[in-house]
Amino acid sequence: MPVPDKPRPGQESVWDYPRPPRLEEFAGAITVELGGQTIAVTDRAWRVLETSHPPTYYLPRSCFADGVLREAAGASWCEWKGQARYFDLVTPSAVASRAAWTYPNPTPAFTAIAGAVAVMPASVDRCTVDGEAVVPQPGGFYGGWITSWIAGPFKGVPGSSGW
């Protein structure tokens, strides 16, 4: 088991997040950029908080620019949220394949995010939370958003598969 980093004042530790994960509302400025343009802007979203993971943000589908969400093939299963479906993110100058996902019919604990869209920050140019550029969760599989107020270590680093 890893040793949690000691949170600095104002930080949250991902090791204080629950398992199974918790869903909470988030009121703050969020942007997503791809291909040199802002493709999503919102001041309300949801965060999924799970032990060892930085938060994954789910944005209202309506905050995405027209035409940037293109349904993509395939699906996956989350033991907590249910079946996910994927989107390519598309702008005139860039395509990020399967870079976003949604739970059309999530489990009862996650009904608030039905149809909301999460974005893989490593697949786009930039995501921000309250003006701060997000660092993608390591490993390329998870969609967590790391900001300065989140303390790790984070699942996804080498050797973390058993966390």
From TrEMBL:
<dbReference type="InterPro" id="IPR007361">
    <property type="entry name" value="DUF427"/>
</dbReference>
<feature type="domain" description="DUF427">
    <location>
        <begin position="30"/>
        <end position="121"/>
    </location>
</feature>
<dbReference type="Pfam" id="PF04248">
    <property type="entry name" value="NTP_transf_9"/>
</dbReference>
<protein>
    <recommendedName>
        <fullName>DUF427 domain-containing protein</fullName>
    </recommendedName>
</protein>
<dbReference type="InterPro" id="IPR038694">
    <property type="entry name" value="DUF427_sf"/>
</dbReference>
